[in-house]
Amino acid sequence: MSQETTAKNRESAPDEADLDAILAQWRRERPDIDAAPMAVCGAVWRAGDRLRQGVLANLTQYDLDFAGFDVILTLRRQGRGEALSPSALAKDMMLSTSAMTNRLDRLEKRGLITRTTDPSDRRGLKIILSDEGFALADKIVATHVDTEERMLAPLTPAERDQIRALLAKVG
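Predicted structure:
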């Protein structure tokens, strides 16, 4: 790749140029350390931040944050009329049950979910989307997928698969 092509690529991807500059500084200051992992992690974090910002911009039109969005779509995936206990919902979303309570309170106040007594355990609860919550979830999932598609549009299907496969190896 020519220096001119490299320069043009960096103009279109300033984050990568910034990461290259950071690596150069570390090579100068600590030549005994290979700081290349910092650039990889930095690129992943920056891409993640851009994706989160794009998704959040979409959610604001529905007056939702990530927490409410996650609950609504988790319930929507279960199917119309299907319910989950708060603990099953928390487990599905990888949260503590205490973190779930506040989310559920806010969504119930908006009329998006309903808490009902578990018919098989009178002490237990089930969470279900209200009709309004179900309709909102269907609207959100469509605009959410459109938002993600727009952000990923520069990538071919093969590149998307490659990113998923590569990121699955990180850990």
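Summary: The beta strands are 113-118, 121-129.
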